[in-house]
Amino acid sequence: MPLTKTKVTHSKNKNPSAERLQNLVKIFDKTDRVLIVISADPDSIASALAMKRLLWRRVQSVTIAHNNEIKRLDNLTMVRLLNVPLQRLQTLATDTFTRKVMLDSQPYHNPDFAHIDYDAVIDHHPAVEAVKASWVDIRPEYGATASIMFEYLRAARIKPSVRIATALFHAIKVDTENFTKRATSQDIAAFTRLFDQVNQALIRKIESSDIKLSDLAYFRLALDNMRYSRKRIYCHVGKVEHPDILVLLADYFMRVYEIGWGIVSGFCGEKFIVIFRSDGYRKNAGKLAMQVFGAIGSAGGHRQSARAEIPRTNMPHSGREFSSRSLERLIVRHLKT
Prior knowledge:
With 337 residues, the protein is of the alpha/beta class. It has two domains: 3-208, Alpha-Beta Complex (inorganic pyrophosphatase (n-terminal core)); 213-332, Diaminopimelate Epimerase, Chain A, domain 1, CATH 3.10.310.40. It contains twelve helices and 14 strands. The chain has a six-stranded parallel β-sheet with strand order 4-3-2-5-6-8, covered by helices on one side. The protein has a six-stranded mixed β-sheet with strand order 9-10-11-12-14-13, with helices on both faces. It has a two-stranded antiparallel ribbon with strand order 1-7. Helix 4 (111-114) links the parallel strand 5 (99-103) and strand 6. The protein starts with a strand and ends in a 5-residue tail after the last helix.
């Protein structure tokens, strides 16, 4: 398989989308059994649905496989409501498929992907290594792979079903964070063209499905344990079943009018996890996470959101049980008054 440059050059063709489409579909024939490989999140799931539709009647079969366990409730809701046919990559014999496609990722992003020879790779994340495939379409300027896949559908003159349109629309919203992150005019165009085809009730249900009934106990615990000082909330909730609850709590605290910082911690398995949220005004959550925990674990993020994960054995213990007050003591020395 030839080594294809990962940088996609601009075509001299007056219709580059049509040329890209032809370069992609010529890889396949009607006898092919196609495996689409993803790390499941809204963008990759939507892109896979679009690719499956694009290959309809062009190949014998299409299987969508993901390597990761889907835990986020909004993603589980998306899969359930949109009836997305997914299989775990680890359960499949990949060599029984005649063609393999990777979407919204690249082979070196995960060890689960590295052993597979891909025929096509389509992504919007920057390429830091060369990718081997017959067709490589990597556009790091795009906000979502879903926008790229929508262009393929348009080039093929395929109007996406309500189900696929809803998935693509949601993916673009998520990956661009409602266009507050990196995005192009192409992302905006895709979003606009999809708007009238989307089931907005499904979008609202997917976006609002982030709390389980069992999670409500953590909210009570957090409200009881939180400490407030200088427009900051510090909260340690102890042992949690999954770290996403810490994210939900930190985001919840940032909805309080007077709050500029929301910092929430907990133990999940053998890790101590801290979620940082800030309003971003003269604040940098990623920098703070690095200052406090960078020397003893992994830490980083952006101005308004960051995360730190520290092996439990690296945590400084002083003989007292860790508490919201302990969290405040760790953080406050690095914060400007």
